[in-house]
Write a structure and sequence with these properties.
This protein is of the alpha/beta class. It has one domain: Rossmann fold. Helices cover about 45% and strands about 10% of the residues. The chain contains 13 helices and ten strands. The strands form two sheets. An eight-stranded mixed β-sheet has the order 3-2-1-4-5-6-9-10, with helices on both faces. A two-stranded parallel ribbon has the order 7-8. β7, α11 and β8 form a beta-alpha-beta unit. The longest helix has 22 residues. The two termini are about 35 Å apart.
Protein backbone atom coordinates (compact mmCIF):
# COMPACT_ATOMS: atom_id res chain seq x y z
CA UNK A 1 0.00 0.00 0.00
CA UNK A 2 1.42 3.38 -1.00
CA UNK A 3 1.34 6.40 1.26
CA UNK A 4 -1.17 8.11 -1.02
CA UNK A 5 -3.44 5.07 -1.03
CA UNK A 6 -3.40 5.09 2.76
CA UNK A 7 -4.14 8.80 2.98
CA UNK A 8 -6.89 8.46 0.37
CA UNK A 9 -8.56 5.74 2.41
CA UNK A 10 -8.24 7.73 5.62
CA UNK A 11 -9.87 10.78 4.07
CA UNK A 12 -12.71 8.87 2.44
CA UNK A 13 -15.98 10.25 3.78
CA UNK A 14 -17.68 7.50 5.75
CA UNK A 15 -21.45 7.08 5.92
CA UNK A 16 -23.13 7.56 9.29
CA UNK A 17 -23.56 4.54 11.59
CA UNK A 18 -26.30 2.09 10.55
CA UNK A 19 -29.75 2.97 11.83
CA UNK A 20 -32.77 0.91 12.77
CA UNK A 21 -33.31 -2.40 14.51
CA UNK A 22 -30.73 -4.37 12.53
CA UNK A 23 -29.88 -6.46 15.61
CA UNK A 24 -33.46 -7.27 16.56
CA UNK A 25 -33.57 -10.84 17.91
CA UNK A 26 -29.77 -11.17 17.66
CA UNK A 27 -27.35 -12.28 20.35
CA UNK A 28 -24.07 -10.40 19.88
CA UNK A 29 -20.77 -11.24 21.58
CA UNK A 30 -18.08 -8.56 21.51
CA UNK A 31 -14.53 -8.90 22.85
CA UNK A 32 -12.62 -5.83 23.96
CA UNK A 33 -15.85 -3.92 24.50
CA UNK A 34 -14.74 -1.35 27.07
CA UNK A 35 -12.47 0.97 25.06
CA UNK A 36 -11.63 2.25 21.60
CA UNK A 37 -13.32 0.69 18.58
CA UNK A 38 -15.07 -1.86 20.78
CA UNK A 39 -16.64 0.75 23.05
CA UNK A 40 -17.80 2.92 20.16
CA UNK A 41 -19.25 -0.13 18.41
CA UNK A 42 -21.03 -1.07 21.61
CA UNK A 43 -22.65 2.36 21.69
CA UNK A 44 -23.86 1.86 18.11
CA UNK A 45 -25.20 -1.62 18.87
CA UNK A 46 -27.12 -0.40 21.91
CA UNK A 47 -29.43 1.55 19.58
CA UNK A 48 -30.15 -1.42 17.28
CA UNK A 49 -32.48 -3.48 19.56
CA UNK A 50 -30.28 -6.54 20.14
CA UNK A 51 -31.80 -9.48 22.00
CA UNK A 52 -28.64 -9.61 24.11
CA UNK A 53 -25.21 -7.97 24.15
CA UNK A 54 -22.45 -10.08 25.67
CA UNK A 55 -19.35 -8.16 26.72
CA UNK A 56 -16.44 -10.62 26.90
CA UNK A 57 -13.70 -8.71 28.71
CA UNK A 58 -10.92 -8.76 31.29
CA UNK A 59 -12.00 -5.59 33.11
CA UNK A 60 -15.29 -6.66 34.67
CA UNK A 61 -16.02 -3.62 36.86
CA UNK A 62 -15.29 -1.09 34.11
CA UNK A 63 -17.44 -3.00 31.63
CA UNK A 64 -20.33 -3.37 34.06
CA UNK A 65 -20.27 0.37 34.62
CA UNK A 66 -20.30 1.02 30.86
CA UNK A 67 -23.18 -1.39 30.36
CA UNK A 68 -25.16 0.23 33.18
CA UNK A 69 -24.67 3.66 31.59
CA UNK A 70 -25.93 2.38 28.23
CA UNK A 71 -28.92 0.72 29.88
CA UNK A 72 -29.81 4.00 31.55
CA UNK A 73 -30.04 5.51 28.07
CA UNK A 74 -31.74 2.51 26.45
CA UNK A 75 -34.05 1.02 29.06
CA UNK A 76 -34.87 -2.10 27.00
CA UNK A 77 -31.21 -2.99 26.43
CA UNK A 78 -30.25 -6.44 27.70
CA UNK A 79 -26.62 -7.19 28.30
CA UNK A 80 -24.21 -9.18 30.43
CA UNK A 81 -20.51 -9.01 31.20
CA UNK A 82 -18.48 -12.23 31.23
CA UNK A 83 -14.79 -12.64 32.03
CA UNK A 84 -12.50 -13.56 29.12
CA UNK A 85 -8.71 -13.24 28.98
CA UNK A 86 -7.12 -13.81 25.58
CA UNK A 87 -3.69 -14.10 27.25
CA UNK A 88 -4.89 -17.29 28.95
CA UNK A 89 -5.98 -20.22 26.77
CA UNK A 90 -7.69 -21.87 29.74
CA UNK A 91 -9.96 -18.81 29.95
CA UNK A 92 -11.00 -19.38 26.32
CA UNK A 93 -11.46 -23.13 26.74
CA UNK A 94 -13.71 -22.66 29.77
CA UNK A 95 -15.67 -19.79 28.22
CA UNK A 96 -18.53 -21.91 26.80
CA UNK A 97 -19.35 -23.27 30.26
CA UNK A 98 -19.58 -19.71 31.60
CA UNK A 99 -21.96 -18.83 28.79
CA UNK A 100 -24.13 -21.85 29.53
CA UNK A 101 -24.15 -20.93 33.21
CA UNK A 102 -25.78 -17.68 32.10
CA UNK A 103 -28.39 -19.59 30.09
CA UNK A 104 -26.82 -18.76 26.71
CA UNK A 105 -26.76 -21.44 24.03
CA UNK A 106 -26.79 -19.35 20.84
CA UNK A 107 -24.64 -16.60 19.36
CA UNK A 108 -25.70 -14.87 16.16
CA UNK A 109 -22.74 -12.52 15.79
CA UNK A 110 -19.24 -13.02 17.22
CA UNK A 111 -16.99 -9.97 17.02
CA UNK A 112 -13.30 -10.66 17.63
CA UNK A 113 -12.36 -7.06 18.34
CA UNK A 114 -9.86 -7.29 21.22
CA UNK A 115 -6.20 -6.94 20.36
CA UNK A 116 -2.91 -5.36 21.44
CA UNK A 117 -0.15 -3.31 19.88
CA UNK A 118 3.11 -3.58 21.88
CA UNK A 119 4.38 -0.27 20.53
CA UNK A 120 7.38 1.04 18.61
CA UNK A 121 10.13 0.37 21.12
CA UNK A 122 12.99 -2.08 20.74
CA UNK A 123 12.23 -4.61 23.44
CA UNK A 124 12.31 -8.38 23.85
CA UNK A 125 9.35 -10.65 23.28
CA UNK A 126 6.88 -11.01 26.12
CA UNK A 127 5.68 -14.60 26.47
CA UNK A 128 2.35 -15.71 27.89
CA UNK A 129 2.00 -18.49 30.43
CA UNK A 130 0.91 -20.69 27.52
CA UNK A 131 4.32 -20.29 25.88
CA UNK A 132 3.39 -18.00 22.97
CA UNK A 133 4.59 -14.50 22.15
CA UNK A 134 1.92 -12.23 23.61
CA UNK A 135 0.95 -10.30 20.47
CA UNK A 136 0.75 -13.50 18.41
CA UNK A 137 -1.47 -15.16 21.01
CA UNK A 138 -3.75 -12.15 21.59
CA UNK A 139 -4.15 -11.06 17.96
CA UNK A 140 -3.97 -14.37 16.10
CA UNK A 141 -4.18 -17.58 18.10
CA UNK A 142 -6.81 -16.57 20.65
CA UNK A 143 -9.40 -15.08 18.25
CA UNK A 144 -9.11 -18.21 16.10
CA UNK A 145 -9.37 -20.54 19.09
CA UNK A 146 -12.32 -18.57 20.49
CA UNK A 147 -14.15 -18.79 17.17
CA UNK A 148 -13.78 -22.56 17.00
CA UNK A 149 -14.64 -22.87 20.69
CA UNK A 150 -17.94 -21.10 20.01
CA UNK A 151 -18.88 -22.88 16.77
CA UNK A 152 -21.60 -24.92 18.47
CA UNK A 153 -23.21 -21.65 19.66
CA UNK A 154 -22.93 -20.09 16.20
CA UNK A 155 -24.45 -23.18 14.58
CA UNK A 156 -27.66 -22.49 16.51
CA UNK A 157 -28.13 -19.23 14.58
CA UNK A 158 -29.97 -19.13 11.25
CA UNK A 159 -27.48 -16.56 9.92
CA UNK A 160 -24.27 -16.72 11.98
CA UNK A 161 -21.63 -14.10 11.42
CA UNK A 162 -18.04 -13.81 12.66
CA UNK A 163 -16.11 -10.55 12.49
CA UNK A 164 -12.32 -10.33 12.81
CA UNK A 165 -10.70 -6.94 13.33
CA UNK A 166 -7.97 -6.49 10.76
CA UNK A 167 -5.61 -3.67 9.87
CA UNK A 168 -4.24 -2.08 6.72
CA UNK A 169 -0.80 -2.70 8.22
CA UNK A 170 -1.11 -6.31 7.07
CA UNK A 171 -0.14 -4.98 3.63
CA UNK A 172 2.85 -2.88 4.69
CA UNK A 173 4.62 -4.97 7.31
CA UNK A 174 7.84 -6.85 6.56
CA UNK A 175 6.67 -10.36 5.64
CA UNK A 176 10.16 -11.78 5.12
CA UNK A 177 9.94 -14.20 8.08
CA UNK A 178 6.87 -15.81 6.50
CA UNK A 179 8.56 -16.05 3.11
CA UNK A 180 11.67 -17.62 4.64
CA UNK A 181 9.57 -20.10 6.60
CA UNK A 182 7.80 -21.25 3.43
CA UNK A 183 11.01 -21.41 1.38
CA UNK A 184 12.82 -23.36 4.11
CA UNK A 185 9.80 -25.52 4.97
CA UNK A 186 9.84 -24.30 8.58
CA UNK A 187 7.00 -23.66 10.99
CA UNK A 188 5.58 -20.13 10.73
CA UNK A 189 4.25 -20.43 14.27
CA UNK A 190 7.65 -21.35 15.68
CA UNK A 191 9.35 -18.48 13.88
CA UNK A 192 6.86 -15.99 15.28
CA UNK A 193 7.38 -17.32 18.78
CA UNK A 194 11.19 -17.38 18.57
CA UNK A 195 12.52 -14.76 20.99
CA UNK A 196 15.82 -14.52 19.09
CA UNK A 197 14.16 -13.31 15.87
CA UNK A 198 11.48 -11.17 17.50
CA UNK A 199 10.97 -7.66 16.11
CA UNK A 200 8.66 -5.62 18.34
CA UNK A 201 8.25 -2.83 15.78
CA UNK A 202 6.94 -5.29 13.18
CA UNK A 203 4.96 -7.74 15.28
CA UNK A 204 1.62 -5.91 15.25
CA UNK A 205 1.46 -5.64 11.45
CA UNK A 206 2.70 -9.19 11.06
CA UNK A 207 0.08 -10.47 13.48
CA UNK A 208 -2.63 -8.82 11.40
CA UNK A 209 -1.14 -10.33 8.23
CA UNK A 210 -1.21 -13.81 9.77
CA UNK A 211 -4.80 -13.32 10.90
CA UNK A 212 -5.78 -12.17 7.42
CA UNK A 213 -4.05 -15.19 5.87
CA UNK A 214 -5.97 -17.56 8.11
CA UNK A 215 -9.38 -15.95 7.64
CA UNK A 216 -9.00 -16.00 3.85
CA UNK A 217 -8.78 -19.77 3.99
CA UNK A 218 -11.37 -20.09 6.76
CA UNK A 219 -13.98 -18.48 4.49
CA UNK A 220 -13.64 -21.48 2.17
CA UNK A 221 -13.83 -24.00 4.98
CA UNK A 222 -16.74 -22.57 7.01
CA UNK A 223 -19.09 -21.81 4.15
CA UNK A 224 -22.20 -21.81 6.35
CA UNK A 225 -20.95 -18.84 8.40
CA UNK A 226 -20.40 -15.30 7.14
CA UNK A 227 -16.80 -14.35 7.95
CA UNK A 228 -15.63 -10.77 7.49
CA UNK A 229 -12.24 -9.18 8.19
CA UNK A 230 -12.86 -5.51 8.99
CA UNK A 231 -10.25 -2.76 8.86
CA UNK A 232 -11.23 0.30 10.92
CA UNK A 233 -8.37 2.33 9.47
CA UNK A 234 -5.99 4.39 11.56
CA UNK A 235 -8.04 5.60 14.52
CA UNK A 236 -7.25 7.35 17.79
CA UNK A 237 -7.69 4.70 20.47
CA UNK A 238 -5.75 3.42 23.47
CA UNK A 239 -4.29 0.68 21.25
CA UNK A 240 -1.19 2.90 21.00
CA UNK A 241 -0.76 3.29 24.76
CA UNK A 242 2.59 1.44 24.65
CA UNK A 243 4.15 3.73 22.02
CA UNK A 244 7.27 5.61 23.06
CA UNK A 245 7.24 9.31 22.23
CA UNK A 246 10.77 9.68 20.88
CA UNK A 247 11.98 12.93 19.32
CA UNK A 248 11.51 11.44 15.85
CA UNK A 249 7.96 10.33 16.63
CA UNK A 250 7.07 13.73 18.09
CA UNK A 251 8.45 15.56 15.03
CA UNK A 252 7.14 13.26 12.29
CA UNK A 253 4.81 10.55 13.58
CA UNK A 254 2.54 12.52 15.90
CA UNK A 255 1.68 15.29 13.38
CA UNK A 256 0.99 12.67 10.69
CA UNK A 257 -1.37 10.82 13.01
CA UNK A 258 -3.04 14.04 14.14
CA UNK A 259 -3.74 15.02 10.53
CA UNK A 260 -4.84 11.63 9.20
CA UNK A 261 -6.20 9.47 12.02
CA UNK A 262 -9.93 8.96 12.41
CA UNK A 263 -11.81 9.19 15.65
CA UNK A 264 -12.59 5.88 17.32
CA UNK A 265 -16.27 6.45 16.53
CA UNK A 266 -15.57 6.75 12.79
CA UNK A 267 -13.33 3.69 12.92
CA UNK A 268 -16.16 1.79 14.59
CA UNK A 269 -18.47 2.57 11.69
CA UNK A 270 -16.49 0.10 9.60
CA UNK A 271 -17.25 -2.62 12.12
CA UNK A 272 -20.90 -1.76 12.72
CA UNK A 273 -21.58 -1.41 8.99
CA UNK A 274 -20.27 -4.95 8.46
CA UNK A 275 -22.47 -6.24 11.27
CA UNK A 276 -25.52 -4.49 9.83
CA UNK A 277 -25.00 -4.87 6.08
CA UNK A 278 -22.73 -7.80 5.20
CA UNK A 279 -24.92 -10.70 4.06
CA UNK A 280 -22.07 -13.05 3.13
CA UNK A 281 -18.37 -13.57 3.77
CA UNK A 282 -15.95 -10.87 2.69
CA UNK A 283 -12.19 -11.16 2.62
CA UNK A 284 -11.86 -7.47 3.48
CA UNK A 285 -14.22 -4.72 4.58
CA UNK A 286 -13.05 -1.12 4.72
CA UNK A 287 -14.54 2.35 4.31
CA UNK A 288 -17.85 0.80 5.40
CA UNK A 289 -18.17 -1.64 2.54
CA UNK A 290 -16.65 -4.62 0.72
CA UNK A 291 -13.12 -3.72 -0.28
CA UNK A 292 -9.81 -5.24 -1.32
CA UNK A 293 -6.59 -6.03 0.44
CA UNK A 294 -3.74 -3.73 -0.57
CA UNK A 295 -1.36 -6.69 -0.38
CA UNK A 296 -0.59 -8.03 -3.86
CA UNK A 297 1.63 -10.66 -2.19
CA UNK A 298 -1.41 -12.43 -0.70
CA UNK A 299 -2.69 -13.12 -4.21
CA UNK A 300 0.69 -14.22 -5.58
CA UNK A 301 1.63 -17.87 -5.93
CA UNK A 302 3.96 -17.57 -2.96
CA UNK A 303 1.28 -15.85 -0.88
CA UNK A 304 -1.34 -18.48 -1.68
CA UNK A 305 1.12 -21.20 -0.73
CA UNK A 306 1.86 -19.42 2.56
CA UNK A 307 -1.86 -19.02 3.31
CA UNK A 308 -2.52 -22.73 2.92
CA UNK A 309 0.57 -23.68 4.95
CA UNK A 310 -0.28 -21.34 7.82
CA UNK A 311 -3.92 -22.40 7.86
CA UNK A 312 -2.89 -26.05 8.16
CA UNK A 313 -0.43 -25.18 10.93
CA UNK A 314 -3.01 -23.25 12.91
CA UNK A 315 -5.62 -25.99 12.61
CA UNK A 316 -3.05 -28.46 13.95
CA UNK A 317 -2.11 -26.03 16.74
CA UNK A 318 -5.64 -25.48 18.03
CA UNK A 319 -6.27 -29.22 17.79
CA UNK A 320 -3.33 -29.71 20.16
CA UNK A 321 -4.87 -27.16 22.52
CA UNK A 322 -8.39 -28.59 22.33
CA UNK A 323 -8.58 -32.02 20.63
CA UNK A 324 -11.62 -32.38 18.36
CA UNK A 325 -12.28 -28.64 18.12
CA UNK A 326 -12.12 -28.57 14.31
CA UNK A 327 -14.56 -31.45 13.76
CA UNK A 328 -17.24 -29.02 12.50
CA UNK A 329 -15.18 -27.88 9.53
CA UNK A 330 -17.09 -28.23 6.25
Amino acid sequence: MTLWTFIGRQWTKLPPPPKGEYLKGKVVLLTGANSGIGLESLKHFSTASPALLILAVRSIEVSERILAELQSLHTDLKGIVISLNLDDLDSIKSFPSRLKDKGIDKIDILINNAGINPGNDDKPAEMTKDGYEKTFQTNVLSPILLTFTLLSFLKQSSKPKVIFLGSGLHATCNNQPIIEAIDQKKSIIKIFNDQNSFDNKQIYGRSKLLLHMFTRQLIEMLNDISIITVSPGLAITNLGRDFKFSIGFIIFGAPFMFLNARSAEKGARNLTSAVANAEQSYDYWAECGPSYSESSWLSSGQGIKAIKAFYTEMIDEIEKITPGITKDLA
